Amino acid sequence: MAAAAVMSYSSTQTEARQASQASQVYLNSRLANGVLNKSTKAPFTVPEINIAASFLSSLEDRKRIAVQIREACTTSGFFHITGHGVPEETRQAILALAKRYFKDVPRSKREAIHVRNSKYLRGYEPADYTYVNPGDWEAEDAAPETKEGFNWGYEAGLDPTGGDGQYRELDGEDVNGNLWPSEEDVPGITRRSRSTMARYLVWLGICSVSLRCPWIYPKSGIARLLYYPAPSNPQPLDPKQKDKQIGLGAHSDYECFTILLCSTAPGLEILSPDDQWIPAPAVKGSFIINVADFLMRWTNGVYKSTVHRVVNRTRDERYSVPFFFSINYDQMVETLPSCVSAENPSKYPPIKAGEYVLERLRATAKDE
Ligand SMILES: O=C(O)CCC(=O)C(=O)O
Ligand SMILES: [Fe+2]
């Protein structure tokens, strides 16, 4: 029994690595198209969907919203939600917190919780330690991504309910994987920020799960504070695939879907089906939602886990707070039977959720 369990675990890890590598091959093939200046065949839209009626109203109203969401997920893979009920002051408080973290905490103190000290890449992520597109390590003129980040996940100790003891980390361990700045290093900021951030994460997770399934633990997922400094010499949108001074390289997100809170400075760009970078429009008060890899794998590619990147082309700094909504990390992600047929076999081998995320994360980090 024990030997079989070990074997299946290691073969799952191999499959997760292969799946991670396959996603890189796909990304490279999309980016290898070089200079593109074609006209877009189909209009590429990032629709605004007001979900207010989904909380209270009739089944008919909820179906109407579901149809809009499905349409967005199967075309651009991106949409805005408004009517979500998160007060504007909460959203602004989170962005202000990101600003305080990157502006008020000295770099040496941030370095003390460097992601290299965490096997789950939690803590402070300086600009020059990761490329979200691992292919960028190989570029001849590789310059570091300009982003800086701080990453954290669920932690029962910060959950006002105390948790239910079921949360497991990416590798199945029952540990607290987070790294926080010490109270001494950052007087005042930590307790307040930890509980605000923890509440926010749990809140978003719980809100996202009206689709309750036994294998969705609403606290799984990772959140990040991201900071993109204002460039001294902002670059105009270039039809070429490769931009210098990239904030965050081209990538797809790893988990089910992403909920993105961002400041008003633009910067997010989405790769359209005919390989053009389209700046994401800004919608006041919205969260941007995008489909990520697990949803694409379950639906055999019907839902689009769309490639995107961030380039700050303004003289303003940009802050964003993505939350990567996930499933229990020990669950397998396997194409749904309704999405395969003899003519349309599964394009995606099964993978264990946590292993896949870990492989994708590890591939971003510099080998030291
Ligand atoms: O900062 C943004 O606007 C997007 C961030 C993002 O794509 C990510 O962290 O995966
Ligand atoms: Fe992303």
From TrEMBL:
<comment type="similarity">
    <text>Belongs to the iron/ascorbate-dependent oxidoreductase family.</text>
</comment>
<keyword id="KW-0560">Oxidoreductase</keyword>
<feature type="domain" description="Fe2OG dioxygenase">
    <location>
        <begin position="219"/>
        <end position="327"/>
    </location>
</feature>
<dbReference type="InterPro" id="IPR044861">
    <property type="entry name" value="IPNS-like_FE2OG_OXY"/>
</dbReference>
<dbReference type="GO" id="GO:0046872">
    <property type="term" value="F:metal ion binding"/>
</dbReference>
<dbReference type="Pfam" id="PF03171">
    <property type="entry name" value="2OG-FeII_Oxy"/>
</dbReference>
<dbReference type="GO" id="GO:0016491">
    <property type="term" value="F:oxidoreductase activity"/>
</dbReference>
<dbReference type="InterPro" id="IPR026992">
    <property type="entry name" value="DIOX_N"/>
</dbReference>
<keyword id="KW-0408">Iron</keyword>
<dbReference type="InterPro" id="IPR005123">
    <property type="entry name" value="Oxoglu/Fe-dep_dioxygenase_dom"/>
</dbReference>
<protein>
    <recommendedName>
        <fullName>Fe2OG dioxygenase domain-containing protein</fullName>
    </recommendedName>
</protein>
<dbReference type="Pfam" id="PF14226">
    <property type="entry name" value="DIOX_N"/>
</dbReference>
<keyword id="KW-0479">Metal-binding</keyword>
<dbReference type="InterPro" id="IPR050231">
    <property type="entry name" value="Iron_ascorbate_oxido_reductase"/>
</dbReference>
<dbReference type="GO" id="GO:0044283">
    <property type="term" value="P:small molecule biosynthetic process"/>
</dbReference>
<dbReference type="InterPro" id="IPR027443">
    <property type="entry name" value="IPNS-like_sf"/>
</dbReference>
